[in-house]
Amino acid sequence: AISLSVRRNIDNAKVIGQTLKGLVTRETPVNQLLGPLAIADLSGSAARLGWRELLDLMAMISLNLALLNLMPVPVMDGGQITILALEGIARRDFSVRLKERITMAGAVLILLLMTVVIYNDIARFLR
Fold first, then answer.
1. Does residue 45 surpass a pLDDT of 90?
2. Tell me, what DSSP letter sits at residue 75?
3. Which of 6, 11, 99, 106 would bridge with 74, disulfide CB 3.0–4.6 Å?
């Protein structure tokens, strides 16, 4: 069970990576991103299919959140790790003002992404 779980998580992580790469290269349309409304709808559908499908969906959502949290976006943990690594390479701390600006840019990026995802959800349900 453990080796199967590891293999499935690696396969799912590859799919997530391909999707993120597709978003950056514009091969994957942004309207494929799902927000909280679509996730709730998918959860209901998975629950109707059975507990195994619901657990699979929950595992995929958890993996998505973990990988996205490690992205080098300043507001996320991965962004903080990146800033610390860059400070280590520079062998000095960045100014508080610079860190604030970097974090603000990351926050704006996350807010824009959230806006697009919620818009997609609303548009999907109005169709």
1. yes
2. T
3. 106
- HSE (side-chain half, CA atoms, 13 Å) at 73: 17
Residue 72's SS3 state is: coil
Got the DSSP string for 4-33? Answer: HHHHHHHHHHHHHHHHHHHHHHT-S-GGG-
pLDDT at 29: 87
The whole-angstrom separation of Cα 73 and Cα 102 is 9
Please state, in angstroms and rounded to a whole number, the distance separating the CA atoms of residues 56 and 85: 34
* Type of residue found at 125: F
32 pLDDT more than 90: no
Token readout for 51 is 């507990």
Quote the pTM value. Answer: 0.77
Give 71-98 pLDDT, tens digit per residue. Answer: 888 888 999 999 999 999 999 999 999 9
Tokens 């514009």 identify what position? Answer: 26
The set of residues, in sequence order, having a beta carbon less than 8 Å from that of 8 and lying 6+ positions away, is 59
State how far Cα 37 lies from the chain centre: 16
